[in-house]
Amino acid sequence: MKERYSLGSKLLTAIFAIICLVWVLPVLAVLVNSFKTNAAVNQNAFALPNAETFTGIANYVKGMTFGNYPFWKSVGYSLFITLASTALILLCTSMAAWYISRVADLVTKIVYYLCVFSMVVPFQMVMFTLTATANNLKLNTPWSIPIVYLGFGAGLAVFMFTGFVRSIPLEIEEAAAIDGSGPIRTFFWVVLPMLKPTMVSVGVLEIMWVWNDYLLPYLVLDPTKYKTIPIHIQYLKGSYGSVDLGTTMALIMLSIVPVVIFYLTCQKHIIKGVAAGAVKG
């Protein structure tokens, strides 16, 4: 029995190792090609760079200085939109989830199921209507687009926060109320600290989504004025629409590295937060 279990473990380890390799291979291909000339990438994207095709950091320098729109400006817009959207989602959805969990009436049930339903609605179904609405409400700037992200990110966040809040004993909040705490103080001083596992998990997922998102900023923002990193990479073209693939790969790596580092730093909290948010009260 023990030998059979050991054999099964080794087999699963081998299968998951192959799956991990398949997932990592595209990232490695992007990394390798970011140090190759454009011609070498076009000829054989999977070949390693040699003395003739190796460019060093030239592709990275060219990508950051290409055109009249500074790359670091795009980094600033992406960073602001990502942090502002994530902070807004975490604050608003955690408060909404707490209210939904503690005020169990018909209205809160409808709101909860609408949030859950929004998780299965494809973005393509609403993107044209959304663009017109964002323009009419003046939400087409980096300073206001976090409100749009709040609408799309609320579904998953409310679902996870609600599941976790239902697992918190109500007696803790009742004790705070006896001590004279009002609803706002109870939430920020009692409930919010206990939401940390789910808060970190939701934050990681939202940051990865917003940072890498291309379609929503492209549809809502004016690309001549505001470019996030994915939009900046899309406009990395030369004359007659030619694209320098080596430079493009270099900028893709620059956009991948921050979110990968962030994910690896916070990965230990993700499973814990997802499991906590899946608890049913």
List descriptors:
mainly alpha, MetI-like fold, 281 residues, 13 helices
Uncertain runs: none
Mean model confidence by pLDDT: 84
What's the overall geometry?
Answer: globular
CATH homologous superfamily caption of the largest domain: MetI-like
Q: Structural class from helices and strands?
A: mainly alpha
Instruction: Look up the CATH topology of the largest domain.
Output: MetI-like fold
Proportion in helices = over 70%
Major β-sheet, in short? none
Q: Which series of helices and strands comes N to C?
A: HHHHHHHHHHHHH
Radius of gyration: 23 Å
Report the top-level CATH class of the largest domain. Mainly Alpha
Q: What's the number of extended β-strand segments? A: 0
Task: Please identify, by name, the CATH architecture of the largest domain.
Answer: Orthogonal Bundle
State the domain count. Answer: 2
Q: How much strand content do the residues show?
A: under 5%
First and last CA, distance: 38 Å
| Annotation field: number of helices | 13
